[in-house]
Amino acid sequence: MSQALPVSKKRKKEQPGTVINCGQNKYVIESLLGSGGMGDLYKVHLVKDKTRIYAMKTERISVNEAYKARLKVELNVFEAI
What we know:
The protein is of the alpha+beta class and 81 residues long. 20% of the residues lie in helices and 40% in strands.
């Protein structure tokens, strides 16, 4: 069972309207969808096309190889959906 992070170590949540640069695209955060032990999940849309809605996961901690492997598994699941 996962434990809650101490208040001082909780991740800062992004606010609606925040623009995130990701590669060649820019996304605007619409809302927080949920939070878990590995990060936060946001509903976002492309800056240049508000009709393209996506889910974006953010990470706020440094990662080791085992953590990277877990993220790759998540990515494979998301791509299969």
